[in-house]
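Extended Data, record Glycosyl transferase family 1
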Amino acid sequence: MSNDSDKKRLSVLLINNYFPPEVGAASHLYYYLAKELLKRGHEVTVLTGIPRYNVDKSVYNYYLGKLKNNKYFSEIVEGIKVIRVKLPFVERNQLFRRGIEHFEIASKLFKYSKLPLKNVDISLVYSPPLTLYWTAKKIRKLTGAPYILNVQDLFPQYAIDLGVLKNKFIISFFKNIEKKAYCSADLITVHSENNKKYVNNITEQQEKIVVVENWIDNNLITPGSKDNEFAIENQLTDKFVVSFAGTLGFAQDIEIIIKTANELKDYNEIVFLIVGDGVKKSESQILIEKYNLKNIVMLPTVTKEKYPLVLHSSDISLATLHKNVKTPTIPSKILSIMSAGIPIIASMNLNGDAPKLIEKANAGYTVPAGDYKSMSEKILLLFKNKELKEELGKNGRKYIEENLSVRTAADKYEKLFQEVIKTSKVKHS
């Protein structure tokens, strides 16, 4: 933490479609950053909706009750002011409705909450949904606060690659929004050099695109004992556990995990643990039944408090993406796995950024997307070599501590905030 006495205290607005108690990379990423910025003396406000994703409908109804007859309400979460706006509960498999929802979110976040947002110095916006750039743009017009667009997933390209977006008119429509979002932002942050190249191809404004690698709170996600309540409850303590925890969506390849489990079904000590929910869950359950597999444990999404115990219960953890995912993404679960000090085996296109990170950190292995034979071989290698398994886990933890902690990210964002505010004042003076 910086001790510079002349460092200005800022009022930072984080705009994100997700925030705890919602579980997932997007909500956790901004939760970690908000807490770190708060520690450094900044005022932090999060503008988001009432919880809707990866939470039970009862959680949504609870927050709906807190709204009473209002369109938004404010609450304090660990010192962070969170403004929650009333938004609909949309099932994940309703793709067309979710597309409409992106515009609904952007409009309502601004419309219903502009009154408490008069004293913002700068906004940091999570994308996707891309449409949130419009919210930040409106807040900039209202308050004069510049905004940084934090591009995490390259939408609509990844949806095109996965075949989720096919209609030429809709693709052209979202491509137009993408260009407007990038050009409108005062600054754009991306999490890798390849992402920077992609965004620059659209904006041709390389000077306003900065790489800030994704981060994790390595004090919350730490190495821990396998002898914990989660492992005991699910009878995992005496098993060699290969886990996958996260969204079971279009981008994630769950089939390779099931095929790998089928390949290793004769190893009684090896258990595959799949923790999560999503549009591909029922399809995955059908495939498990088809193979008649007894070595897979499927559990629903856990809370952010329980998530570290899932990792502590694991000997290896997996990150998988379909071969059609060609955008250079680094799944945030990779950082969590490394921070927990366990080795990672990733299955994805080998020319992306994630394989480079795993290799650079020497924290595990990457196999080609869909290659369950190679995944099986790597699992067996670590199953039979405990020292190698522990060494790779320690390497990952060390790399996180030295390079990808939330402290490092906050250092970078503090500097960027000051620079963007200064540049914005000069521009509008």
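Summary. The first strand starts at residue 11 and ends at 15.
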